[in-house]
Request: fold
Amino acid sequence: MERGRPGQAGFTLVELVVVLLLVWVLMAVGMPRFFNQLTFLEWGFSDELGEAVRFGQKLAVATGCDTQVSISSTGYQLNQRASCNSGAFTTAVRLPGSDSAGYSGTAPSGVTLSATALYFDTLGRPRNSATNTLLTTATPITIGSRNITVEPQTGYVH
Reply:
């Protein structure tokens, strides 16, 4: 019986370097095709806007003053009525932790919004800003390809 060299186990350094280079080239060329920055911007802004709507509801309940969430095609703003529960929504809501800035946000470039205006009454129920009536159906807020929905009666935002 002939004794040969035992079989080699593992990879050579050259093979390892070549495989790593190929993986790096594929990632550099292929990965940007799988990810779109606008998708991440929409996701982030929809989270921000959802939190602003939730804050508006909590503020209305906590202060006993109606709080409006006004959404335009370029951003959003939170306002309260001039004299708590009567008058126009002209008093800017202060951003928590700040004494000067209003609670508002601007959509990132390329992110589109559906214009909507609603407000929360002192019980946290969502109302139509134009008609002052309680919402009877779920109200979607479109942020690019994403949606935030405000449910009637409860004001649940998801």
